Amino acid sequence: MKKIKKITLVLLTLLLYILLPVEAAMANTAYKTYTEDGYGQYVETQTAYTVKNTIVQFDDELFTQASDMKIGKDGLLYIADTGNKRILVGDANGKFIRSIGNEVLQKPTGIFLSHDDKLYVADEIAAKVFVFSLEGELLQEFGRPESILFGETATFVPEKVAVDKRDNVYVISRGNSNGIIQINANNGEFIGYFAPNQTIVTPLTVFRKAIFTEEQLSKMIDTVPATAKNINIDEKGLVYAVSQGERVEGIRKLNVAGRNILDTAVYDDFPVSVEIGSVDNIFVAGENGFIYEYTSEGNLLFVFGGQDDGRQRVGLFNKISAIAIDASDQIYALDPEKNQIQIFQPTEFANLVHQSLELYQNGDYDASKGPWQEVIRLNGLFDFAHLGLGEAYFKEENYQLALDSFRQAKYKEGYSDAFWEVRNKWMRENVIYIIYLLILWFILAQVWKRLNKKYKWKERMSQSMDKKHWKWLKDITFIKKMIRHPIDSLYSIQYENKASYLSAFFWVIVFFILFVIEKYYSGFIFRYVRDGEYTLGTDVASFFAVLLLIIVCHYLICTINDGEGKFKHIFIGSIYAFAPYFIFKPFIILASNFLTYNEAYLLSLANFIIYGWVAILLFVMIKEINDYTIRETFKIIFLTLFMILIAVLLLFIVYILILQMVDFVVSIVNEGVYRFENR
Hints:
Largest sheet: 4 strands, antiparallel
CATH superfamily of the largest domain: TolB, C-terminal domain
Number of domains: 3
Shape: elongated
Number of helices: 19
């Protein structure tokens, strides 16, 4: 999923560059800003950050292959000038202050400013973590831990470092998959490994381990978890780590126990840096030049930036190695290939979002409504603003407005909670009317029962349906018998002509209508399509194509396996086997509009019963129509599924061949036109 989102983001950016006039693009920024809607898709939004300044050197001091950067309490920038084996210190205006570690450092790749104003530096080649004062005095150094718990073969190649307020040093060592190394800053003792990434075991790996010999397994590449790429710590002592690799949590927000409390994903294949803003917002930078901003709970607010195409445009990067955030929420992004720092300042729109977020997180829900509404006025597609407004309304117990806001935000969990409250209020206000309706229904049922007994209306209607011109209606209602007596019903279909193509086609149309209604008009929280999204053309083609494919494949398999059923019987029997679906599904679809996640198990149970019931009836239909044994029936089902797979593969191959033929014809025509025009 994260790869799809990354590709989508790049394509959207390129498309906007192509479609927009150059003057319009340059008048604003060289990049576009996106946010995430309630469906998890990128949508363009107002520019959140603009480039304020660019730093390429501190006075006459250039930096080379810089790999990390931090900002001190005094606003000074500390840069791991890896190529020059030092730490550069300067201000935001490019003024040089000092250089640290010139005679000590060999390859500084990670730095951290501790709460007690010390500078920690991770050095790969020296294989040590050095501790300096902010003036540059070497205070302490940590080498490879000597504890046996560290592991004899474990590597200690420090890449990044962080320190919490308890003086615990967290070190990321290249190639050490045991986790983040913890060292006591006071005595240098090894504390243990912290929050290792989980080992990803694919089904293929499990299969190989099950069948391979010991010799074959010894030749396989070990399945080891990815090593974290960068680390940071906030004021509350929570540790943030970013990692690279497939099926790896790109960003983790770790508590003291090392448990990830962040339920989100970084839609970037190569996250390299993580920082925390003033409202606990999380900034993540990817190597490819994109910068992501999340809320403290993991909701994506903005993503901007991108990779430069060689035109050296402001706001784009060749590569990002680190980002840092100052007290004004300005973002400093370090490009090690351009050897420069770009400073992004938040726009009024971003400040408005941050103001709303801060008010809400501080519990001032009433005050947060105004800013949220202003954000929505500026951009109605900014779904997170609808979510924030809905949360504010919910905290105020204004559940109807919360319901509307959550619907706009496509936030199903919040919608479910608000609907629960709205429904409870409606039930309390209308329970007496519901009781009156139930009593009235009972009275009418008794009246109907007595009148029917006296005038025999039901019997007369049944006799009327026996007439020839009512046979089609009787064939349609015959489906009720499939519920009570499926075997007798199948016998009647095959030998007594109790149903027809016309009645079966009627139920096929009902089947399709119920399929469409369930897809588009189920309850909002149980619907799997987006609001306002309709693909009826695709629905018609796919529904009838799949239905026809299954029935035809099954008939052909039965024909070559001595099945007694004719196509008519198999077709009608297959459709009538869906009787539980036709009878009970409308009530489930209706109920889905009045249920919440608290009752979702009822919906799942009802659907399980219906589909299980249909599966049993289909099994009975195959057995009885074709006079198979139970064993033969299972065999026919398996062969039918196999034939469907083969048919799909053949259709796909034909489709590819047709496309290639069309491309070939088009290329021939284009070549002919080109040569004719150039004669």
